[in-house]
Design brief:
Number of helices of chain A: 19
Order of helices and strands of chain B: HHHEEHHHEEEHH
Number of helices of chain B: 8
CATH architecture of the largest domain in chain A: Up-down Bundle
CATH superfamily of one domain in chain B: Cytochrome c-like domain
Bound molecules: protoporphyrin IX containing FE
Strand order of the largest sheet of chain A: 1-2
Largest interface: A-B, 56 and 49 residues
CATH topology of the largest domain in chain A: Cytochrome Bc1 Complex, Chain C
Mean pLDDT of chain A: 94
Distance between the termini of chain B: 16 Å
Structural class of chain B: mainly alpha
Oligomer: heterodimer
Low-confidence stretches of chain A: none
Low-confidence stretches of chain B: 8-25
Order of helices and strands of chain A: HHEHHHHHHHEHHHHHHHHEEHH
Radius of gyration of chain B: 24 Å
Strand content of chain A: under 5%
Radius of gyration of chain A: 27 Å
Mean pLDDT of chain B: 91
Largest sheet of chain A: 2 strands, antiparallel
Distance between the termini of chain A: 48 Å
Amino acid sequence: MASGEREPFQNTVVEWIDSRMPIFTMLQKEYGVFPAPKNFNYFWNFGAIAMFMLATMIATGIVLAMHYTANTHMAFDSVERIMRDVNGGWLIRYIHMNGASFFFIAVYIHIFRGMYYGSYKKPRELLWILGALIFLLMMATAFMGYVLPWGQMSLWGATVITGFFTAIPYVGESIQTLLLGGFSVENPTLTRFFALHYLLPFVIFAVVFLHIWALHVTGSNNPLGIDTKGPQDTLPFHPYYTVKDTFGLLVFLMIYCVFIFFMPDILGHPDNYTKANPLVTPAHIVPEWYFLPFYAILRAITFNMNLYFIVGLVFLFVLIVEFIWRKKPVYLSASAGWAMLVIGGFLILTGFTGDSCQRIDPKWLDENGGFKGLCGALQSLPGMSAAAAPISAKLGGVLAMFGSVAMLFVLPWLDTHPVRSARYRPLYKLFFLLLVVMFLVLGYVGSQPADASLLGIPLIYLGLAGTGYYFGYFLVLLPLLSRFEKTKPLPESIHQAVLSKQIKVEAKI
Amino acid sequence: MTRRFALLMTFVLTFGTGMAAYASEGGEPLIRQSWSFNGPTGTYDRAALQRGYKIYREVCSACHSMKLVYYRNLEALGYNEEQIKNIAKDYTYMDGPNDEGEMFERPGLPSDPFKSPYENDKQAAAANNAVPPDLSLIAKARPGGPDYIFSLLTGFEEHPPEGHTLLPGQHWNHYMPGHVLAMAPPLSDGQVTYEDGTPQTLEQYARDVAQFLMWAADPYMEERKRTGIKVILFLLVFAGVMYTLKKKIWADAH
Ligand code: HEM
């Protein structure tokens, strides 16, 4: 972007600045004439909406911070002071509080949009990874923000979530102490969470900048998932998409405002209007709704993974790599593969049953002598006791939860099918929509107490099934589909697809 | 495309509200009331708020504090400055130190928070078997809010159902999670005198105090809803204009 290449501006002030630092030329290039595919649907609005929400959170957050006191004796009352005595304080706080939810709504739709239309595929892998990083940073920011008002859920949510870090062997306790600034959630926790909650949104802002930079190198994907081939496929960003984004944003804001003004507390938890009290544990500790699917994955692992189970799992993973990820197995013959499958399956079953036997009601065992015998035999095997399991249930849950977010980062290398858009991939579409359903089911499971059941089915099984599908989708289904899925014929170009759609519409009229 | 968009928005809305409906465990389903402040244009009933405040002042304030509410806030209930001054000066506050370094007692001022019945939580617990919670935010801090308060106050049972025994100082309530609480039924028919001819029944008392507590927890509700209607109308018009503009600009796009 050497200044020699630029076109002079009419306005003398703009020209004076631009000739010294071509910022207007850059804006013109990136947001004015920037060529965008002409067939975006409304799902393409959510990036701009998410950007707007980030700006809203920063603006309202800074005002809140002017009145907020990060001290366990004063935090709760200072927030209520904002609600009652600061001019317009209730509005600022409700915008911020519901803003976190609507930021997540926008970003979730944005992510699922990207998955549906294959926006993570070559050449947009880095763009996608930056997006996943933003999501991770948002989760950390929102988690720490929720602690600031110092209600009962602030305290106990933080206690439960940071407690999971202790499951990590050797360093877990130290990590927890470092996070908390002590051994439990107390004043040092609140002050460091406030400092980080102030900092992270600006880090997010920087990553968003990189995200958009990467986008403007590769250009946008589109609902057809095919590359743009020339000017007939695109429109200048302004005015076509500026006007469309504004319209979409206004509709989104309308829904957001219905929450802010008419049901501002419905997405929160009533317990957070009770001041934090370390001596009273709430009956039912739940995180914010946007964490629930991941919380369900965390709680889905209720069994210890002993040596048998882990070796079986490793066998299974080797098989997946050899026979599913690779086009041709390199190290294993087909018969060796079958043998490993049988042995691996057997080990998993042995390990799982052996571990389950330790948690089963002994009364139930007595009436079923045979089963008791099996359990006894299994438990006499070396390394079967819960204490000897290298991965405890708690650690397993933590690994599963972080693993589920990690899937997003490696997604571009799990789905290598050359066709991007789900429109031309019927099987992919089916499994993807099932993933969305499973994600919502996991959200429901996460919102319920751990021992709840639905229509007689204990929810832990539903949580485990959802978790299984989630990982199965990424690790097995996507690589399989990448190799074998037959797609529908792709249109020649975006221009042609748009034209033929118009002809169809006109024929109907 | 518009159909899909509508679908998406319905999804967002139902997902949002559905997820928020956390289960409230323990108590029986609440008695749902129609409140004057329900709905997008609902407002508080000033007369009911004043009666509710009377109940709080004469009954509940013997045990429950309301530290976040100030006498000056009573203006929103329709009291004038003079009346508020008179209400406040009935209470005695410790202040100081004065120029001699002494603490001294003085009558309350409109700028004082509601007088708490106890010095601290320990004292409150010692007198009541449990800490009576501060009521400033109780209507937001319990699922069901005013419906819960109404149900709780009218839902006491002198004798617990068979198979349950109460310890001394415990009371049975249909709506309290776990059914047992340390508060004795605080209200009964005819206990508080109403000057405006409103029936002096337990139900009426409970209704009035529930409304007062809702106001205390959410004093800006009326302003919030009024602003909300304007904001939504503005967005609606603005979005309409943008939609027309979009149609116009896109007319030559394909
Ligand atoms: C990525 C953007 C952000 C997210 C997702 C976020 C999220 C949250 C959440 C969930 C809460 C708790 C709301 C409640 O229940 O009351 C909160 C509170 C708070 N946030 Fe943020 N926030 C963001 C940006 C910021 C920024 C940039 C600042 C300051 C410069 C800030 C300052 C505060 C303060 C002072 C509170 C405590 C007051 C309160 O709880 O209402 N936030 N935030």
